[in-house]
Amino acid sequence: MTKNQKFNRRSFLTKSALAGGVATGSVLAAPAVLAQAPLVVKMQTSWNDANIWQEFARDYATRVEEMSGGRMKIDVLPAGAVVGAFQVLDAVNDGLIDAAHSVPVYWYGKNKAASLFGTGPVFGGSATTMLSWFYAGGGQELYDELTQEIMGLDVVGRLGFPMFAQPFGWFKGEVNTVADLQGLKYRTVGLAADLMSKMGMSVAQLPGGEIVPAMERGVIDAFEFNNPSSDKDFGAQDVAKNYYLSSYHQASESFEFLFSRTFLEDLDPDFQAILKYGVEAASTANTAKAMDRYSADLQWLQNDAGVTIHRTSKEILDAELKAWDELIPELETDPFMKKTLDSQRAWVERVSYYELMNSPDYGLAYDHYFPGKVKL
């Protein structure tokens, strides 16, 4: 059976329903034929129900349903409902689910190039810069080449919601120098694991739900996940009290919306368009909600949970860049990764030049109206 002939449960159900409608139409009045159940898209995420990201996935589902006039619904399932958090790519490829809401770094174990689509080197562009590269700078084509041609997967992927730079993470004590990091057992994922290893830490790659138990058992000494809201929701503040914001290890990530290619191409063009452009609609909505909730939860962590908020030291940030300098030549021994990194560098050099030259000093303005709150 070829990839294009692969059985798809949704295609079978859709075509069976249509065939039944035709047969029924010969004996029933026309109005009865119009009463059709909505198409249900089975989407699993890589998040549990308590994570704000599960809410972000439901926001996407809401927009799809409303844009389709109720003709299409997305059944949003949490991690573990069908497969584990790191297995959603396989599940979409195999037709177990129609779609997934995740991040490319979670299939880094299959191909390291996955990390370049969100958690690669930071050349000076933000997550918004790199999401723009995906849509306007050739990133989508490179992603398709990796997933569909190099890896031979039956998937279509779109990126959405440019995440704010991930904090360096949670530590039991203060870490202000590179020497303070030596030997720490630290949780991260993707290329960030290689990066932190070069900085002297011992790295464990764990799903979000396993982080706090691992910290409690002493399996890890420190960790990062992503943002104040997700970190708060799984209890990071209960196992560590020093929270370091700003880092170059994962500063340009976006969500990945994965679809079964067989399933997607079998849909009518309007449904395909709704699923595609719904990602862009959710991206805007997710950004607004993240700005609201992340900032409020950071205040709660600081004011109510007794967490000390730090900015990562310049010494550690400089060391991260030097570690990237060591790692990039190793990555570029792979021709596809070199092609992708070359594309990203060219994009950032041009686009971030405009962004940086054009942007006023927002920190200066913030300090003018809210003096002394942020150490500039």
Quickly count the helices: 14
CATH superfamily of the largest domain: Bacterial extracellular solute-binding protein, family 7
Distance between the termini: 61 Å
Mean pLDDT: 90
Q: Give the ordered list of helices and strands.
A: HHEHEHEHHEEEHEHEHEEHHEHHH
Question: Which sequence of strands runs across the widest sheet?
Answer: 7-6-8-5-9-11
CATH topology of the largest domain: D-Maltodextrin-Binding Protein, domain 2
Proportion of residues in β-strands: 5-15%
- How does CATH name the architecture of the largest domain? 3-Layer(aba) Sandwich
Largest sheet: 6 strands, mixed
Give the fraction of residues assigned to helices. 40-55%
User: Total number of β-strand segments?
Assistant: 11
Please tell me about this protein's structure:
The protein contains 14 helices and eleven strands. The protein has a six-stranded mixed sheet, sandwiched between helices. Helix 3 links the parallel strand 1 and strand 2 (72-77). It has helices at 9-25, 30-34, 52-67, 88-93, 127-136, 139-150, 191-198, 211-217, 228-233, 261-265, 269-303, 314-331, 335-358, 362-369; strands at residues 39-45, 72-77, 99-102, 155-162, 169-171, 185-187, 202-204, 222-223, 242-245, 254-260, 308-311. Helix 3 (52-67) runs antiparallel to helix 11 (269-303), helix 5 (127-136) packs across helix 6 (139-150) and helix 7 (191-198) crosses helix 12. Residues 1-7 and 9-33 have low confidence and may be disordered. By secondary structure, it is an alpha/beta fold.
Short description:
The chain has 376 residues and is an alpha/beta fold. It has helices at residues 9-25, 30-34, 52-67, 88-93, 127-136, 139-150, 191-198, 211-217, 228-233, 261-265, 269-303, 314-331, 335-358, 362-369, and strands at 39-45, 72-77, 99-102, 155-162, 169-171, 185-187, 202-204, 222-223, 242-245, 254-260, 308-311. Helix 3 (52-67) runs antiparallel to helix 11.
